[in-house]
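Journal club side-thread
Mid-discussion, someone asked how the predicted structure for our own chain would compare to the paper's figures. Pasting it here so we can look after the session.
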Amino acid sequence: MIVTFLYLCYYYASDSMKLKEKIDKEIVMLVMESLVITIIIVWLAILIGKWVLNNQRDVYVDNEVVVDIDSKIKKELSKVSDIEGLDLKSNKIILTNNSNLEKEYQILLCGDNNNADSIRLSFNKSYIRSLNTFSYNNSCYEIVNEILEPYSNNELSIGIWQKKSSSISSIKVNYNIKVKIK
């Protein structure tokens, strides 16, 4: 609307060259401002989209237990000591038992079993083990078998890294964390 008004002023004020130059400058400035604002909006939309994709969590109900899980581990593992590994970002699992019965649950880490002796896991930032110490069946490591009391919840965090003393230069993993309720 403003641009149209400026164009009309431009055509009707043809005898004044200073007015034409001012209007031309204003039009150029408005176009440039619009372009910059459009670029900023597109850039922010891309950043927000990436954030949403990277922080996607699965929430579902299985046998009266609400499972809230950050299930994807797809990354190159950091090659660090166990102490440093505890400070790395971990995947969260929250289980809420809404029934009056105890529920047995199992947490599985599914994917290939390559380099399992060089991969370390932590549970709740304290319990640390090598991946190859867990049983591997049907393409999944059985990492937790526990009981969830009635009307209670359990929050777990699972961290994963490459042990510092490993002879492998870098390990890329693509795991899914799954929860089975019995």
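Post-session note: Residues 17-54 form the longest helix (38 residues).
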